[in-house]
């Protein structure tokens, strides 16, 4: 929430408005999970060992490797299984072919500095039919976005720095 310059986050006005809003909304409670959903999740987790093997096989087929993070997450099947499901659906959306999805993964990994992920997704993009030039272009696009992120923030700070210097006698 943005506040006018004269009102800081800890000021009584902001605290009052936050408390008033909370009072209007009532007490915060978390509804318990429906019993049928609990049972469904429990039945899934009861098969965690076979699911783990299937997830490893599917990951190997999709990426050409099983990333170490997946193996570490397997220590907590309740986390790994649902994380893997999310990853599979995110990395193979219905609206994109595998090659395009992997090129996007290459760009995202490059832009975020995730070197190990970049290596995995470059290989997966190649297996999905991406050429070396397409993979390189995805990296270059990521570099432009990464550069823009750095420049936008840094140049705003420089602008503010410069303005302060100009105001000094």
Describe this structure in words.
The protein folds into 2 domains: 46-91, no CATH class; 94-169, AhpD-like. The model is unreliable at 1-16 (pLDDT under 50). It has helices at residues 12-25, 35-45, 48-63, 68-73, 77-91, 98-112, 115-127, 132-167. Helix 6 runs parallel beside helix 8. The chain has 8 helices and no strands. It is mainly α and 169 residues long. The two termini are 35 Å apart.
Would you spell out the secondary-structure blueprint of this structure?
Elements: H1 12-25, H2 35-45, H3 48-63, H4 68-73, H5 77-91, H6 98-112, H7 115-127, H8 132-167
Helix pairs in contact: 3-5, 6-7, 6-8
Summarize, please.
The protein is an all-alpha fold and 169 residues long.
């Amino acid at each position: 929430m943005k506040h006018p310059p004269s009102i800081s986050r800890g000021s009584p006005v902001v605290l009052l408005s936050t408390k008033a809003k909370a009072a209007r909304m009532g007490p915060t409670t978390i509804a318990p999970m429906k019993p049928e959903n609990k049972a469904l999740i429990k039945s899934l987790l009861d098969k965690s060992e076979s699911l783990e093997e299937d997830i490893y096989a599917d990951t190997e087929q999709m990426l050409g490797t099983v990333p170490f993070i997946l193996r570490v997450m397997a220590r907590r099947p309740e986390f790994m299984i649902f994380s893997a499901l999310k990853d599979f659906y995110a990395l193979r959306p219905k609206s994109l072919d595998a090659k395009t999805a992997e090129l996007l993964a290459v760009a995202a990994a490059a832009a975020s500095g995730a070197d190990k992920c970049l290596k995995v997704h470059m290989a997966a993009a190649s297996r999905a039919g991406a050429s070396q030039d397409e993979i390189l272009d995805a990296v270059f696009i990521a570099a432009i976005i990464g550069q823009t992120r750095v420049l936008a923030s840094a140049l705003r700070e420089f602008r503010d720095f410069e303005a302060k210097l100009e105001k000094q006698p």
